[in-house]
Amino acid sequence: MTRTDIAPAKGKLGVLIPGFCGAISTTLIGGVEAVKAGEGRPIGSLTQMGRIRLGKRTERKNPFIRDFIPLADLKDLVFGGWDIFDENLHEAALKAAVLDPAQIESVRGRLEQLRPMKAAFDRKYVKNLQGPHVKKGKNKYDFAMQLISDIEAFRKKNRLDRAVMIWCASTETYIKEQNVHSTLAKFEAGMKADHPAIAPSMLYLYAALKCGVPFINGAPNLGVSIPAMVELARKRGVPIAGSDFKTGQTLMKTILAPGLKSRMLGIRGWFSTNILGNRDGEVLDDPASFKTKEVSKLSVLESILQPEMNPELYQDLYHKVTINYYPPRGDNKEGWDNIDLFGWLDYPMQVKVDFLCRDSILAAPLALDLVLFMDLAKRAGLGGIQEWLSFYFKSPIHAPEVYPENDLFVQLEKLENNLRHLMGKGLITHLGTEYYK
Prior knowledge:
Rossmann fold, 16 helices
């Protein structure tokens, strides 16, 4: 295989984050600073701790991913972003209460230097949040132009060589794809006309792509999958990826469901409920925002189990998802799953899962990996939808002619094979041993 021509990861990489003062952002940035200072380990990050197999098993070549591909170094990351609350990251991290206060204090000097830019925000799309640190503009196109100015000013001020934008802000109200999303021309006209189907997250996406900045959608908001933005990404040769970080309960589903399906075990019902008390939980307490999240979480099982191909096992599966806002838990989410399955001769069985997770602790390493991989994709000349990063998302965007891949293990294989391809190494197919000669 021929190695893809990849530009070197030289200079500073800007990481632009809508939702700059939230739990995920402060956990990501505080964590990166702790790792750089030798005061913590980047557990959960493939780019920092994962290995990749090369060649036959007999060759025993398993380098770290960070040594195999040319990734940006953590010391070269420069963080910035937007938020509706004007506070430095030290104050925000203490409020988020994810990291231990002593660990926050250990990186206080760096966090105190970081403050957000004013956000492009409209409460109609996130009804349970309100903050004073917001932009003013005559229409949505004006807001997008202000965001473009922010990006260019941030680049200049920090002497950046490259940048990536990652959405770590809230889940917006549910929006169905409409005609205004069908082409770039209609979308731009819609921004100038303040079309209600154009949410703030789309303005950030538009601004990023116009600036040649890869965009990662960490929430289930509509945006990266609409034809207008796919068109713009392809025209500009800019990578896009999403949607919705795969962290707690859905992570468990993408582990368990492929295993049950691989053994041809039937499933009659899968009931999932969550309690959490962070800002995400507060936002999702609004039914309109929860609808967006619900659609994302419900889509996973259908694509894995493929009931149309396995009707005897999954056609009548009842899948229920609920999320409950419970302030005492903070960022420590608890997800319960009850799975009613059946096996040989239709005998019933059950699986019960109680996952006491930390939402932002799971999301932060995903965000770091995505930033580094998307920067790699841009330097490798990969524009448009980056389906090889489906591993990180609940609702992975994909080409319209194919169904999404949600099996975690297939997703990981796709990711690793893409890295092998970029570096001119042979793909792992699990064939070609001496037994097949």
